[in-house]
Amino acid sequence: MMSGSSEHAAHAPPARAAGALDGIRVIDLSRVLAGPLCTQMLSDQGASVIKVEPPGGDETRALGPPVNADGDAAYFTAVNRGKRAIGLDLSLPGGREVLLRLLEQADVLVENFIPGTMAKWGLDYEADLKARFPQLIYCAISGFGEDGPLGGLPGYDAILQAMCGLMSVNGDAASGPTRIGIPIVDHLTGYTAQSGILLALYHRARTGQGQRVDVTLFDTALSLLVPHAANWMHTQRTPGLMGSAHPNIAPYDRFACRDGDIFLGVVNDRQFRKFCDYIGLAPLLEDGRFTSNRQRLQHRDALREAIEGALRDRAREAVCHDLMRLGVPVGPVNSVPEAFEQAHTAHRGMRIDRDGYHGIGPATRLAEAPTRVGRLPPAFAQHTDEVLREAGLDDTRIASLREQGVLPPRRPPPKP
């Protein structure tokens, strides 16, 4: 028979599992998208993130409308949940002293200033911070890095899309080279920075040493050119505009049904047979032009014409439902509202509506260390006093820093 204590333990409710990054403290000096997205993802996994903003605030607060009840742009709220915010003027010696105080308790610092800015302030990683904080992981996000022909220059998502060839393969003959409709370089840079930080944390767990993590929009943009760059390197043929089609696979494209567009992604012969049998194109299976992907690529125009004719009078919902259950990849070309109205979006928890906050849910899930959606996006300088008291500053010192202009007053962000 169990003892009283064992019986009590058996029936006690399970303790809430800690996030994978519980106990990790992050100082976030970044603004706009890549850096804030990175630190938001760290927060979703349990890290404590302190967002440090200059007196003018993160400029993304003003990139509206739409704006929330506090006047912050929806854009800002999309990448800054789960953080505490302080205002701090790092151009002043007192501001830099406060930052150094915060770093005494920090594991990670993330910044995306123009290279050289931190060194100008006496906060260079190698020269000033590494010896003082040997366990610190310092993540610098920039457009091009510190050195090289473009080193030190500012970088922006759309400019990198243009410079690194992404626009050259996006669009069609009518549109010409076109910017991808989301800031994909910034977005992936945020994920790249997160990966680098996690690798550095793992390395530190083995060695006890922090290090600098160098992430650039330039490198990230070039890394997106799969398979276009590999195709060019092997053939020396310059990739061009293909609309929604794929350079290596057919049929892999957008097609019109009676009531809307679908995207069909057939990647092997087995799927092609199932598709043709379902859609009434069985004769194509005996046509030598379409017996393999290589042949289908060579005759993609004729294949497209046949598929368009077969789909023209069919309802897209039925086509997508039936083909997906046959193992043929296909989906409706949804609008943004349609994407978030899907039942599976709710099932996966990918839309968050809480206390007036509306956001996209975390995309990474760990079975034993649950993701959490923490604090709502902070107002400007909302937690300044709280954070500084935790760092050991008393109210007299905080008041003095405020009088010196080191700590900007709380205020609404600039009106759009």
Automatic annotation (TrEMBL):
Top-rank EC class of the record's enzyme: transferase
EC number: 2.8.3.-
Pfam family name, one: CoA_transf_3
Molecular function GO labels: transferase activity
Domain of life of the organism encoding this protein: Bacteria
Region (Disordered): 392-416
Alphabetized UniProt keyword annotations: Transferase
Protein name in UniProt: CoA transferase
Organism, scientific name: Achromobacter spanius
